[in-house]
Amino acid sequence: MSAKILSGTVVRDVRIIELIKKFKAILPAPKLAIIRVGNRSDSTAYIGAKMAFAKKVGVTACHIHLDENINQQKIIDEIEKCNRDESIKGIIVQLPLPIGINRDVVINTIDPRKDIDGLTATNIELLTLGRPNAVVPATARGVIELLNFYNIQIKDKKITVVGRSQLVGKPIAQILLNKGAHITVAHSKTIDLVTETRGADIIITAVGKPNLITVDHVSKDQIIIDVGISRDGELDVKTGKNKLVGDVDFDSVEQVLGEGGAITPVPGGVGPMTVLCLFENLADII
Ligand code: NAP
Fold first, then answer.
1. How confident is the model at residue 106 (pLDDT cuts 50, 70, 90)?
2. Does the pTM of the predicted model rise above 0.90?
3. CB distance 188 to ligand 1 below 6 Å
4. CB of 163 shorter than 6 A to ligand 1
5. CATH fold for domain 25-125
6. Are the beta carbons of 188 and 225 closer than 8 angstroms?
């Protein structure tokens, strides 16, 4: 038998039903502000997915699109306006911001009670302290909810997280640590990634480099969660765009995993969980 496929699409389609019910019970419909600066095409795709999901679950999303060359104070003014607007329950600043804008200053302008991305210093501190009222960044929450859905134990497991960014790798490592896992965090300066990953029960990779994790990095009964998203050289005939791939050489790695192993696909793994959990964060803080 082959490894189990951990589908985030399946989890999302199950959990969205509950989410729709929750938002339906809130009147007037909650409002979400998505602030975007500039015209990056990847941001267009991510915002499109969030707007479409908002519509499905009954949240009114407003997309505040600011010019690439806007000055930092104007972005701050826009966030403060959203902070004051009581009908707006959640605020997202789409990252990355243009060069020259101080990300931390901008993010920390968001009222922590509306910070559904969990990126303000207040929320990071709450997460670090292991407080139950911390807003867990959506991708980190998505990884946890995916593992929970498929009954994969976290406590006492050896987990290697590859990637240590503020947005993805660190919050994933922190929440798993809070849940009693033994964590190793690998990054670009890690000398022997093969040893760090092969010995783990669970590998979570969040780097953005196709084929970083090959058959050499894995062992038979591992759980592999691929957070990475990149576009490779091959054209997808359906979309006419380059294919989306993760960090794992999926086809080869899937072959070496045994029936005790499991792996997320890209697309259809952590991606749908991230969007779902962003809205679960919104439902929790209302
Ligand atoms: P990032 O800020 O560029 O961080 C990448 C991390 O990978 C850094 O910590 C870096 O180490 C590490 N790294 C780079 N090369 C490495 C190597 N050869 N071996 C081991 N570690 C290496 O990226 P990010 O924002 O965290 O995003 C990571 C990936 O997740 C991207 O592909 C992004 O598109 C994807 N993502 C997916 C979702 C989703 O919903 N699925 C959500 C968010 C992001 P250093 O710290 O040493 O530089």
1. very high
2. yes
3. yes
4. yes
5. Rossmann fold (3.40.50)
6. no
